[in-house]
Amino acid sequence: MTLFGEIRTARLLLRPLVEADRETVIRIQTDPRTNRHHPAPPDVAESGIKFDSWLADWAELGFGYVAVIEVATDSVVGVGGVQLREWGGEKILNLYYRFVPEVWGRGYATEMARAVVSWADRTLPQHPVQISVNIDNEPSLRVAKRLGFDTYAEAPFEGALTRHFRRG
C-alpha cells in the first residue's frame, strides 16, 4: 500500500526513501552543521537505526519521510516529509526536514514542506500536521511562519526548549 508516490515542485522531486539513500541520509543526519540546534546529535549507528525505522514506515503505512532531490543536479540534497507520531496522547503528522548545508538559503525547506503539507491535507486530514522547532533555530522558526503555522505549545523535547506549531 503506497499512499505517497512522487511529488514534483518547481525545483524538487520528493520520492519515497529507498535503501540506496542510506549513506547520503546518514551523512546529512550526522553532519555537525545540520545539528547546530540539536542538543544530542545522532551518531552513525543511531542514524542507521532511524533510517531503518523510516523505511519500515513506508512498508507499514505507505508514507513517511522522503528523499528530497534537486531536479537541476539530480542529487539527494535532503530528507523530509511527515511521520505519524504520538504527541500528547494524540496521533499527529510530524513535519521534518534536514538539508545538506550547501543548499541552505535557497528556500528548499519551505518548498518541500508546502508540497508535503498539501499532500497530507488531502490524504490524511484526520491527523494534524505539527512542526516542532528548537527555539534557537531561527531559520526553521521562519519556515513554520511562512507555511502559516502558529505556535501551539512550548515544551522541553530531547534536551531543548521546543516550540510546536500547528495551523489554526
Give the tally of β-strands: 8
Whole-number tally of structural domains: 1
Helix-strand pattern, N to C? EEHHEEEHEHEE
Q: Segments where pLDDT lies below 50 for 5+ residues?
A: none
Largest sheet: 8 strands, mixed
- In what range is the share of β-strand residues? 25-35%
Average pLDDT: 91
CATH topology-level name: Aminopeptidase
What shape does the CA trace take? globular
What is shown here, in short?
The chain is an alpha+beta fold. It has helices spanning 22-30, 44-61, 108-123, 138-146; strands spanning 7-8, 12-16, 65-70, 75-87, 90-99, 129-134, 150-157, 160-166.
Index terms:
168 residues; alpha+beta; Aminopeptidase; eight-stranded mixed β-sheet; 8 strands; 34% strand; globular
Topology:
Elements: E1 7-8, E2 12-16, H1 22-30, H2 44-61, E3 65-70, E4 75-87, E5 90-99, H3 108-123, E6 129-134, H4 138-146, E7 150-157, E8 160-166
Parallel strand pairs: 5-6
Antiparallel strand pairs: 1-2, 2-3, 3-4, 4-5, 6-8, 7-8
Helix pairs in contact: 1-2
Walkthrough of the structure:
- The N and C termini lie far apart (31 Å).
- This protein has a single domain, classed as Aminopeptidase (3-Layer(aba) Sandwich).
- By secondary structure, the chain is α+β, with helices and mostly antiparallel strands.
- Helix 1 (22-30) crosses helix 2.
- It contains 4 helices and 8 strands, in the order E-E-H-H-E-E-E-H-E-H-E-E.
- The chain is 31% helix and 34% strand.
- Strand 7 and strand 8 (160-166) form a beta hairpin.
- Strands 1-2-3-4-5-6-8-7 form an 8-stranded mixed sheet, with helices on both faces.
